[in-house]
Amino acid sequence: MFPNLLSLNVSPNIHLTEFCFLYFSDFVSFYTLPSTVMHHPVHKSLKAAYSFYNVSTKTPWIELMGDALVSAKNSGFDVFNALDLMENKKFLEPLKFGIGDGYLQYYLYNWRCPSMPPNRIGLVLQ
Q: Which of 13, 42, 55, 115 fits a disulfide with 25 by CB distance 3.0 to 4.6 angstroms?
């Protein structure tokens, strides 16, 4: 797999409409960024997957993201990261995701926005 490549896993629920438009009911995607392990005698790098865009309309979130974890593991990833945003709360705790050690803070120039809970946020910066 190439660095920074986006992986997309599509649910088997694929439908054709009467006008022959193809649509998917569910999908997950994740990307990778290179990470260097410093001062370790054996391990020099860490292959981390970062959850990107995910849609669940038929498959339950826990099943869909569980499949993403298996796919990432089978692709050689060491860790799978997901932010607490949008509907991610539905799978973070049940799939035993650990809470990070800090908060991500983004400054969006000239945007006024009140504080909001994570399930109302859909911004992912790479």
A: 13
